[in-house]
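Readers outside the structure-tokenisation community will struggle with the description of the input data as it stands. For illustration, here is how one protein appears when written out as sequence plus structure tokens:
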Amino acid sequence: KEAISYTKSNFGNNLGILNDDFFYPTDFEVSEQWLEDFLKNRFAEFGDYEDAIVKSEMLLNHSLLTPMLNIGLLTPHQVINAALTHANKHQTPINSVEGFIRQIIGWREFIRGVYITKGSQERTKNFWGFTRKLPHSFYDGSTGIVPFDETIKKVLKTGYCHHIERLMVLGNFMLLCEIDPDDVYQWFMELFIDAYDWVMVPNVYGMSQFADGGILATKPYISGSNYLMKMSDYPKGKWQEVWDALFWRFMDKQRNFFLKNPRLGMLIRTYDKWPEEKKANVHQIAEAFLASLK
């Protein structure tokens, strides 16, 4: 309570919402209890639902261990040993065990390695040349794009959303809106409880925005609204028209890049078969939305 009071008094204008229901562990003992709670209650179905998005839920089957791991309240060795011990004792499904362990000894260590060896290169690149400044609506969730706005509100309340929401909702949409990657990096650093430079440089400049031109990933992670409809419980709506217009506008503007990729090139060839009126309408919707961003 003293820390919450101090933070409100000294950093009251900072982003986010800080209430008395702050739930993150702040010591070793409670961090271990948090780990045990995940293993007991969410680990078994982690593999089945790790990519699922639910509008009203933040945690789902995720462990939410990154804040404690990144600050040193838990160690990767400790978490992996506990997970394997629990899995062997309770016959945890292999997809959950593999999926969880891989995120720690695979992805987490890989990101650290990329940062150490290529971080300086990544953070100074802007492959697409995007310079659009991040609008205020990206800070308060008032864009009118339902999945994007709801995810922002989730982050403002908790300092967290899971990896698919970060990549395929937040990062995806920011890339389609051609936001300056430096602004995207700053946004993630400001809003997430597990944000550290070594985490966000590869994940933002490499994975999310493809601003590094392919140092980390082989292609940008973008999609139309159909992906979100499949992975979430968000309702259909006007937002889909805007999202899809931004997607096809992006594909068209960056066609020379996408035509070099056999799979993504198929989308360009599909677009090229559209009537000119349909293409013009897509661009009109996208440009009108981008012009309206504040």
